[in-house]
Each structure stands twice: as structure tokens, then as C-alpha cells.
Write a sequence for this structure.
């Protein structure tokens, strides 16, 4: 079946350090999966951070970037310099725009950025 | 602007007791509606989706049911809770092939 595997948390980094959260996927039933990173800040709902619908393309938002790599089936999330306000839980997900719009999520990575 | 409201924010319920969780979407007509669930230590998975009033499709069998009594309302319920129902429940919506928007969720603890 379809699945997503991401860096197990918790992850702790210091402010201004670089960050990478790994995400790999398996899409056996979806021919052209869309890939997403969602984020949940403390006390907030789950919100879309970035998405990429075409293999080979890069998505970016709030200083975060992720490239859809079909060869390695990866969609790693990177940021050159994190801030304390980036502390949150990050979820990698894949999905296909269809009737059920089912999103397959990874288990989430708790990120804490130390000042 | 569209808003999604889930209630309650958190619940502690006894095994065998009934449950009703609700979700309302304001500012968008005829949304697609979804229920997602994450068990403690598990992954978020879709439970139900609804494209129109009165029609709900089940994705995962968990001895839960869902209903859509109004265009903007989605209800998740069961008559008898199990310990395994504990977790985090998220309601979500979208239109056509657009981004999926999530609510803030309900934390359910079954004791």
C-alpha cells in the first residue's frame, strides 16, 4: 500500500542552525502523487506548509524547501537557518486529488528550536 | 474567510459510553468533508469523507460512524467507546482539487 516514512522525533536544534527532516514515500496505488508538508504549531490546527505536485519541482514557504524526487522517492524538508518560532510538529504526506482526497501521512516529527 | 470549528476541544470518556464529535465549516458552500484520526504514537489516517449532504463514505473500519446532517456540519459518533478509540481527531474540508484545510482537533481519552 501507500506509505510515508519520516525522521522520527523529537528533533532539537539551536536557533540559526540548519535543518533537514527526511521523508520517503511509497505510492503503489497512486500514479502521480502530490506531496505535502503540513505543520502544527502549539495550540493551532494542522496547516499546509508547502506542496509539490510535479516530480522534479521544488516547493518553498517560510524559508523551508522540499524537492519532489521521484528517483529516490523522497521529499526532504530543509531550512538553512531555523528560528525558535519554527518549533512545531511537521508531517510529510502524499495524496491524489480525487473524490476521497485521501492524504497518507507520516508519523510526524516534533521539532524544538532552542534559543 | 472560511472557518472550521471542532468541538469539544478535549474529552475524557469511559469505555462503553457514547461519543459525539462535531465539526462546522463556515464561509464555504458544498465543501468536501473529512474525518482523520491519529492514535497515540500512530499516524494520521482518514476515517470518513463526504462529498454531499447525507452521503458519507467509510475509509477505515473502527466501530465509528459519521453523518452529514447539514451542508456545513460533520458528526463523528459511536454508541460504545473502546480503549482503542483514544487519540486525536481532526476534521478537514476542501473544494474540488484544492488544498485540504484542517481544524484544531479533538483530543479523546478513553479510560
Amino acid at each position: 500500500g501507500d506509505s510515508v516514512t519520516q525522521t522520527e522525533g523529537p528533533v532539537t536544534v539551536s536557533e540559526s542552525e540548519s535543518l533537514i527532516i527526511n521523508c520517503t514515500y511509497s505510492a503503489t496505488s497512486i500514479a502521480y502523487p502530490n506531496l505535502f508538508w503540513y505543520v502544527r504549531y502549539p495550540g493551532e490546527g494542522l496547516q499546509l506548509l508547502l506542496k509539490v505536485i510535479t516530480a522534479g519541482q521544488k516547493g518553498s514557504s517560510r524559508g523551508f524547501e522540499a524537492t519532489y524526487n521521484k528517483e529516490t522517492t523522497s521529499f526532504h524538508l530543509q531550512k538553512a537557518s531555523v528560528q525558535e518560532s519554527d518549533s512545531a510538529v511537521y508531517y510529510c504526506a502524499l495524496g491524489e486529488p480525487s473524490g476521497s482526497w485521501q492524504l497518507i501521512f507520516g508519523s510526524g516529527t516534533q521539532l524544538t528550536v532552542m534559543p | 474567510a472560511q472557518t472550521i470549528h471542532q468541538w469539544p476541544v478535549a474529552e475524557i470518556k469511559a469505555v462503553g459510553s457514547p461519543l459525539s464529535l462535531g465539526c462546522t465549516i463556515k464561509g464555504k458552500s458544498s465543501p468536501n468533508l473529512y474525518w482523520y484520526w491519529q492514535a497515540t504514537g500512530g499516524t494520521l489516517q482518514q476515517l470518513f469523507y463526504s462529498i454531499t449532504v447525507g452521503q458519507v463514505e467509510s475509509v477505515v473500519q473502527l466501530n465509528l460512524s459519521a453523518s452529514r446532517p447539514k451542508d456545513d456540519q460533520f458528526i463523528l459518533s459511536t454508541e460504545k467507546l473502546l480503549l482503542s478509540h483514544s487519540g486525536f481527531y481532526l476534521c478537514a474540508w476542501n473544494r474540488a482539487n484544492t488544498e485540504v484545510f484542517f481544524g484544531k482537533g479533538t483530543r479523546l481519552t478513553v479510560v
Notes: The first strand of chain A starts at residue 3 and ends at 6. Chain A touches chain B through 22 residues (CB under 8 Å).
